[in-house]
Amino acid sequence: MTELQLSTKHLLGIKYIQRSDIELILETTHQFKEIINRPIKKVPSLRDITIANLFFENSTRTRVSFELAEKRLSADTVNFSASASSVKKGETLLDTVNNILSMKVDMVVMRHPAVGAPMYLSRHINANIINAGDGTHEHPTQALLDAYSMMDKVGSLDGKKIAIIGDIVHSRVALSNIFCLTKLGAKVRVCGPPTLIPRHIESLGVEVSYDLDDTLRWCDIANILRIQLERQELKYFPSLREYHLHFGVSLERLEKLDKEIVIMHPGPINRGVEITSDAADSGQSIILQQVENGVAVRMAILFLLANRRDEKL
User: Fold this and answer.
1) DSSP of 62-104, one letter per residue?
2) Domain covering 14-138+292-306: architecture
């Protein structure tokens, strides 16, 4: 296993890490993917490490993926859900985490609705922090598994044209993907209704389009995002039917292209809204591969951050 180290002791966001960190994580992921495809999938790499999974928002794929990654690495785990905790009684975030750390926890994986919550924790507690999604800010492990899945399919991303389609303004996946893909040399375009594209997003080095068909003709890879109705306090488009008509990716649309592009989606999928079932389940889709790669990516991140435990946090 690699002996190189990350430049950071936490994974708070793709914005805060270097291209060399991304490349190290992806290289280490490849080694762990080989391990989890063996008959015996468990390794003792983190047998002396205790990890707390703190999920203050609902999650299925990310939480299960982290838990499985931790078990594959032989770590001890503590699983925490805000809906069944003293948070409901008014306990603060810092008190909650300090109580868990008093149990001698080494690492914290946290999803929280407040932007910057992982950053706040990293300044106050002596443990490695992994951001599993903070509000509409970042979701770094999703971006890393997306990048790994792309490279697994098409090779180097340098110069590749990648479209991020859908609800950009509410998506932490979109922001982390933009940071990650541009650092890896890809050309990135965001596409969606004007109401779902953040103002001044071009300053991040991406193109903006409001034309789905033109964007599909342009790109090599289309990463399609879910319409996050639970985060939308206003009405950003007339109806789901209207959205699908203009921005829904269907097999019929894909078959009109003069090339085959790679289709991705971080999940959960609103079938029949941002993508049809026939497109999501087609041979061009690597959606299930993204889920599989998520475990190996998170194993790599946990392993590399654990290597920083011997330094003062």
Assistant:
1) HHHHHHHHHHHTT-EEEEEEGGGSGGGGT--HHHHHHHHHTT-
2) 3-Layer(aba) Sandwich (3.40)
